[in-house]
Design a protein that fits this description.
Number of strands: 5
Order of helices and strands: EHHEEHEEH
Helix content: 10-25%
Largest sheet: 5 strands, antiparallel
Number of helices: 4
Radius of gyration: 17 Å
């Protein structure tokens, strides 16, 4: 297994340190850019791995930590981890037909609100692979009325994540998933006062 997993110093972003040159904390997008002003994002981490089911446990642990750093509730954190795990299993199974050693890249970005002083809004995860192009007509889970194992991963991903978008660009499959943080209640911000 020749996967590379490089993590920056996530809690101190922006300006995360680099380990092995694979993770870079990007500048906040949106400064002086009207188009990006509503979509400010900050790179948290970028994982490069190969299509190997054994690497999934590393990804699960990393995403669990990332979601905790962003203060997602435990149930949302589990949903994020399971959604990405399911999506990666689908890449290995369908895009790469079970072949090991093929490239997969995962990019995670912290999403910010409209203004520089705003709180984080959520987490964007983009999976990229060079596998076979998916047929958009087949990107539907099986009927929920069918009682049998398997085929419910896409239903779960769509139910768990707030945004699920599939595209193909430059010969690569891209799956973008976003999970938004629920706004804090006033009493939570004030420490229960």
């Amino acid at each position: 297994m020749a996967s590379s997993l490089r993590l920056g110093n996530m809690p101190n972003l922006p300006g995360a340190t680099e380990m092995g040159g694979r993770v870079r904390a990007s500048k906040l997008k949106g400064k002086g850019d009207n188009k990006a002003a509503s979509k400010r994002a900050e790179l948290l981490l970028r994982l490069q791995l190969e299509s190997n089911p054994e690497a999934l446990c590393l990804v699960r642990a990393t995403l669990q930590s990332a979601s905790e750093v962003l203060h997602f509730p435990e149930s949302d954190s589990r949903a994020i981890v399971r959604s990405v795990d399911e999506a990666l299993a689908n890449v290995v199974r369908h895009a790469y037909s079970g072949r090991a050693g093929l490239p997969i890249e995962i990019t995670c970005r912290r999403l910010w609100g409209e203004t520089p002083a705003s709180e984080p809004r959520g987490l964007e995860i983009v999976l990229e692979d060079s596998g076979a192009a998916a047929d958009p007509k087949k990107l539907r889970g099986r009927s929920l009325q069918e009682v049998r194992p398997g085929g419910l991963g896409l239903h779960f991903i769509k139910a768990s994540m707030d945004v699920v978008e599939f595209s193909r660009k430059n010969g690569k499959n891209l799956l973008r998933m976003v999970k938004y943080l629920a706004p804090s209640k006033p009493e939570e911000k004030l420490g229960g006062e």
